[in-house]
Amino acid sequence: MSENKEPHVAKFVYDFTEGNKDLKDLLGGKGANLAEMTNLGLPVPPGFTITTEACKVYLGSGEEPAALRDEVSAHLDALEQKMGKKLGQPDNPLLVSVRSGAKFSMPGMMDTVLNIGLSDRSVQGLAQQAGDERFAWDSYRRLIQMFGKTVLGVDGDLFEEAIDKAKEAKKVTVDTDLVAADLKKLVTTFKKIVKKEAGRDFPQDPREQMDLAIKAVFDSWNGDRAKLYRRQERIPHDLGTAVNVCSMVFGNLGPDSGTGVAFTRDPASGHQGVYGDYLQNAQGEDVVAGIRNTVPLAELEQIDKKSYDQLMQIMETLENHYKDLCDIEFTIERGQLWMLQTRVGKRTAGAAFRIATQLVDQGLIDETEALQRVTGAQLAQLMFPRFDEQAKVERVARGIAASPGAAFGKAVFDSYTAVKWSRSGEKVILVRRETNPDDLDGMIAAEGILTSRGGKTSHAAVVARGMGKTCVCGAEELEVDTKRRRMTIPGGHVVEEGDLISIDGSSGKVYLGEVPVVPSPVVEYFEGRMHPGADDADELVEAVHRMMAFADRKRRLRVRANADNAEDALRARRFGAQGIGLCRTEHMFLGDRRELVERLILADTEGEREESLKALLPLQKKDFVELFEAMDGLPVTIRLLDPPLHEFLPDITELSVRVALAESRQEPHENELRLLQAVHRLHEQNPMLGLRGVRLGLVIPGLFTMQVRAIAEAAAERKAAKGDPRAEIMIPLVGTVQELEIVREEADKVIGEVQAATGTELKLAIGTMIELPRAALTAGQIAEAAEFFSFGTNDLTQTVWGFSRDDVEASFFTAYLEKGIFGVSPFETIDKDGVGSLVKAAAEAGRRTRPDLKLGVCGEHGGDPESVHFFHEVGLDYVSCSPFRIPVARLEAGRAATQAAGSDHR
């Protein structure tokens, strides 16, 4: 890259005295925080930071910025003057560390080199200055080892093997038992390894060491482990890393020296106290590597009370300054405490909620800031039951973690058995190759669902999440044989029906036998079984209760539930739902009503069809009455029948077998034959893009009008009972305004008839699902006939991407995630650039036509934390999600409304 293409920046290098904690984009997290501690007057070894801008120039061109070397030289000169010695000076060497430091913490993912400046000459000067020959040679062998591995690409195992041989020769087991002479020999061995493996000598010029180390840190940004970590944590790949050059302080100078890590609060529980580890006579990597056993930080008070007291004071200063839990690295050099790093510390989900409320009580942060300290993902972790981590378990397979939680029970292989055994008091796990609507009863009865096929948005996964039910999908290692009622696991072991199994929906793991679970008090709180402020209330529940109250006061987005029956609706209401955003009426046509649907499909005459619809009408009405009663005073959006009709008919293979057997036995089989003919007639190559949704209502006379009549009559009945039904009728899969106009005209006519017959005024809003690209692109026209839009982002994602979600997650999504094509599945978090742009455009076009158009979303994205923020930004009125995800959506809606620019609490 030519010089004139370099970014126009004032400079590429900053002294620690020049930066501050708000410059993370430029100085990285480590550099910004070292500067902040320096500004606070804390004991930080002097140094300087090379910016992320320099890294980006290097990574883009393969060459460092032209000005960088001179800037580094100027800062190195200033550092040498401050320290009173020069880098690698033979009689009194200045040594430095070269450390990475990106904006977001990436622990262990990039490179660090300590003790730069040591050479065959300066090691002698270091020994004389320290009065400790062993220390000097130990520092030198560490430099060659780290430099060889990190900068020159030498296999690190070769150095470890050499150390092991040296210990074997001395008949000792730990590094600290090697004396100066042993370490001197080890240095010679290490240099030979470098020469052989790297094809060059270990550099003796200290400036060459530093320059090569800086380049190595830049290069480590694109190392395999760093890229994998960024994909996992969804950190952008274009940020680059800063490089921190810091004067060395030594914790390995004897028993009055040491190194440690400390937390201002317990990162596991959030409780205040003294938390951390300390290791005498050691450098920082010794603590991380676990080569020697550390002691609890509290013991430092007995080892070095002066340093301990100073550290406690500094920890209090940092926590009050950062107003958060701080993670600290420090070194003590012969009784002198030095601060090497601080950052806002990572914490468990429970600790996050406790700490946020504690800091509010201490007056350090307000409610708005507190909401930025917790996440919906953390809340979800707290809601699901967990397996007891102390239990001894045998994992036999792993699938897709489809719906979090922990469940155990007897394996059953069909819905009927699941219901039967459950009613007898048995805990069961429903095991299927894949589920379908027929399995709903069994899924409700089961403790959890396990399938060998499907992904996170398969039928099993979506329904399980809606019920808050544990689910593992796509466990392809399992061979499920539903006819023989058993499954075969890797290694040939067979699990028969009735054998106990356990599944972990948070990890996708499947275990043999029963693994004990620990219940979640947070769910008991949302269910109303645990009350904050009660004597026996969990302190975590109190913290969650307060954060939810904060969120509810701040949020603009309302949160509704996807619920298909009164039981789900009541649970959703307990969880804080403000209505139903999606009631899927197809679930009302299953079970003992299936025969009526079959009769409708098989009807040869108009009279037969009307008779079937007449029989279905009171059943539908009863469902809606119960739903309106459960959600009295809140909106209930009812989607008219959406799926293809073949889903209500028996499986084609099963039917064919039944017909063939009946024919061979010369038994009557007229009904089965008619069903088989109907299945063949309705067969489609891609039924999800065929006769479904609004198309059904247009080609099967009376189907949608029967449903509309049931809704209207149920609403009238509830009003007569002094209820407050607020029904909304949603037409699915509309692609053009003409479809909606025809259905709406018929619906308005039916509603008018019910009003006249009952003498009740009914205000039933009529709208549509936006789930096809054409609907989104013509939203302005569609809004002329629609009073509301509900974005069906599951189908919209399928049709925008051309994905069949039940197939692609298992077939190639893993490869796409590994290659970085996806940061996350577009079925899990909304694709803002593609699907999201259609949502935004449709919302804007719809409101230009109808300013009071109500906008919501009812796809799975309605409960996804990141997607909720997007829906807030584009101005939707509500999100709708499964009952179990309502608290998550409520919390994230509050966070979205209070999102502070530049806040970062990863």
UniProtKB/TrEMBL annotation:
- Where the record annotates domain PEP-utilising enzyme mobile, the positions are 426-508
The protein's matches in Pfam families, at most eight in alphabetical order, are given as:
PEP-utilizers, PEP-utilizers_C, PPDK_N
Q: Which family does it belong to?
A: Belongs to the PEP-utilizing enzyme family.
Q: Which reaction does it catalyse?
A: pyruvate + phosphate + ATP = phosphoenolpyruvate + AMP + diphosphate + H(+)
List, alphabetically, the NCBIfam families matched: PRK05878.1, pyru_phos_dikin
Needed co-factor(s):
Mg(2+)
Q: Using the record's annotation, list all stretches that form the Pyruvate phosphate dikinase AMP/ATP-binding domain.
A: 65-293, 300-350
Q: Which UniProt keywords apply?
A: ATP-binding, Kinase, Magnesium, Metal-binding, Nucleotide-binding, Pyruvate, Transferase
Active site at 459, 858
Record flagged with keyword Calcium? no
Major enzyme class: transferase
The protein in question is named Pyruvate, phosphate dikinase
Looking at the record, the residues that make up the PEP-utilising enzyme C-terminal domain are: 542-894
Q: Where does substrate bind?
A: 584, 639, 771, 792-795
Q: Does the keyword tRNA-binding apply?
A: no
Q: Which organism is it from?
A: Streptomyces pluripotens
Query: PROSITE patterns in the record, alphabetically?
Result: PEP_ENZYMES_PHOS_SITE
